[in-house]
Amino acid sequence: MIMLRKSKRNYWKNYKKLTLKNKNNMENLEFYNKLKSVPQDCLKTIQAGRLKGMSDIKPQWRVLKMTEIFGPCGIGWKYKVTNRLFTEKDSFGQVAVFIDIDLFVKIGESWSDAIPGCGGSTFIANEKNGLYMSDEAVKMATTDALSVAMKMLGVGADVYMGHGGKYDARTNEQKTEAPQEKKAYPEDNRPWLSEKALTQVLDRIATGDTEVAEKTFAAFKMKKEYKEQINSQIEKYK
User: How would residue 26 be classed by pLDDT, with cut points 50, 70 and 90?
Assistant: First the structure.
């Protein structure tokens, strides 16, 4: 009888410990769970380059979600640039810029420790017509660094979790539809992309309209170097 009583006491003692542990785990995941899901209309599929087929998150959604959960930037969350590095020119004259930032969030009346993030972008690129300097490079590197830091809080976690998620299914669906778009433009009948039209496509990509690349690939035949320029531009402004 004494052993049975001890066994019951141990059971309830362990049960309380487990319940408290589960409660703490849920509290730890509070912000992560609120920040992890990305609406479909805030996702875009990368159409070309090394990351083709992957899902990209629209940067402004991250700002919206951080503001929703923590408050306005500068009041509920903030960041500061801790380092800015421009690389030496490589053998092709190209230069990259890297930005380090520290992100902070306010919980109650207390600010968190620094959450570091590092991002990079091409500042000077060697293109067909010569060297091109991007006046958006520092901004894009900063946006990249913020996305890395925010990821530590769970921002967009469902996208970063990897293969087999709902975003991969969406990408596969789009890949399946792609050949149907090509059928509307039989290769023998498509016109050749002119240099003037290429310039217009590159300018539109620079404004954030990456979908124009997919439409251009489907509607025109083009020189190999034209396709490479378009892919390079997508990588630069993704």
Answer: low
d(C-alpha 173, C-alpha 160), whole Å: 19
For residues 3-30, give the mean pLDDT: 60
User: How many angstroms separate the CA atoms of 77 and 152, rounded?
Assistant: 14
Q: What's CA 149's distance to the chain center, in Å?
A: 12
Exposure on the CB side of residue 8, measured as CA atoms within 13 A: 5
Contact 101, 149 (CB under 8 A): yes
Answer whether 68's CB lies under 8 Å from 92's CB: no
* Residues pairing with 133 in the sheet: 124
Q: What is the pLDDT of residue 9?
A: 60
User: What is the distance of C-alpha 222 from the center of its chain?
Assistant: 29
Per-position b or e across 195-205, b if 16+ CB within 10 A of its CB = eebbeebbebb
Q: What is the average pLDDT across 172-198?
A: 59
Write down the domain spans for the chain. 184-238
| Local structure of residue 113 (DSSP, 8 states) | P
Q: Facing residues of 86 across strands?
A: 97
* 3-state secondary structure (DSSP) of residue 136: coil
Residues 37, 158 contacting (CB under 8 angstroms): yes
Which residue blocks in the chain are alpha helix, DSSP H? Answer: 2-28, 30-35, 59-70, 137-151, 157-160, 166-183, 195-206, 211-219, 224-237
Q: What is the pLDDT of residue 5?
A: 56
Average pLDDT of the residues of the chain:
79
